[in-house]
Amino acid sequence: MPLPPNFLSPEDQAEYDAYMSRFSEINHYYDYHTVPVIDWFFKQATEALHHELWIPACTSFLNGIETSLMVTLKSLMLKPTVNDQHAAPELVDLEGISVMSNALLRKAKQEGVPVELLSFPAEQDMLVKVAAGRTPEAEIVRLRNNLCHGNILEFIMSVDIGTSGPIRIFTPECCRELAHELSSISRNWVVGLHKYWVDNNLISP
Predict the structure, then answer these.
(1) What is the overall mean pLDDT for the chain?
(2) By C-alpha distance, which of 190, 141, 150 is closest to 55?
(3) Residue 16 reports pLDDT greater than 60
(4) Which UniProt keywords apply (predicted)?
(5) Which residues are within 8 A (CB) of 74 and not within 5 positions of it... i.e. 6 or more apart?
(6) Does residue 5 belong to any structural domain of this protein?
(7) Are strands 157-160 and 166-169 parallel, antiparallel or unpaired?
(8) What is the pTM of this model?
(9) Alpha carbon separation from 181 to 9, 126, 174 (Å, rounded)
């Protein structure tokens, strides 16, 4: 709810706007929930993003995406058939489900999961990569396999400091742009994933 004009000082208004922006983004994941073991990755990633914790934001978004794919496929495996009168077993492990890979994305796509929502803006051939085999990796797979294993070398920046020539540096800010990209992808992803869960009776509307 917007406040009356000039109700707050410029500093307090900026703080209020930042709070409302964070609240709105986190609330988005409540609106398009699936199960807590998926949802909390995205909520925590958004908290990290708004506190400028760029590396935790990136890894939490990536882990949330991976977990959401794995849990979705496992939930489909456990889903009772039409003639089965028993309730679905509890989800207690992810045995039998691949970790993040082209194969995981390919299996999810075969089940109708809208994995194309995980493509990056400049990645026009994601589904081609996924269909091709293990390599070349879809960008979301490549980034997860690098960042979540501690490989941040591609984010090292070359900075020219004058006569002594450029130096290579890394700070968490080097991942800021990626964190915002992953946030945008994740916001779209959970909308499509929530619809998939509802349409396939994995959760109630």
Answers:
(1) 88
(2) 150
(3) no
(4) Plasmid
(5) 91, 94, 96, 97
(6) no
(7) antiparallel
(8) 0.85
(9) 32, 16, 13
Structural domain boundaries enclosing 186: 10-199
> Residue for token digits 């390919």?
106
pLDDT in tens, 63-72: 999 999 999 9
Distance of CA 3 to the CA centre of its chain: 32
In angstroms, the CA 127 to CA 123 distance is 9
Q: Where are the alpha helices (DSSP H) in the chain?
A: 10-31, 36-50, 54-78, 102-110, 126-132, 139-147, 176-199
Tell me which DSSP letter residue 171 carries. Answer: -
Whether the CB-CB separation of 52 and 177 falls below 8 Å is answered with no
In the predicted structure, residue 91 carries a pLDDT above the cut 60? yes
Chain centroid to CA 136: 20
10 Å CB burial of residue 176 (0-12, 13-18, 19+) is: middle
Q: Determine the average pLDDT of the residues in 130-144.
A: 95
pLDDT at 21 over 80: no
52: alpha, beta or left, given left = phi > 0 and alpha = psi -120 to 50?
Answer: left
Distances 154 to 43, 57, 60, 65, 96 between C-alpha atoms, Å: 26, 17, 19, 21, 32
Structural domain includes residue 204:
no
Structural domains in the chain (count): 1
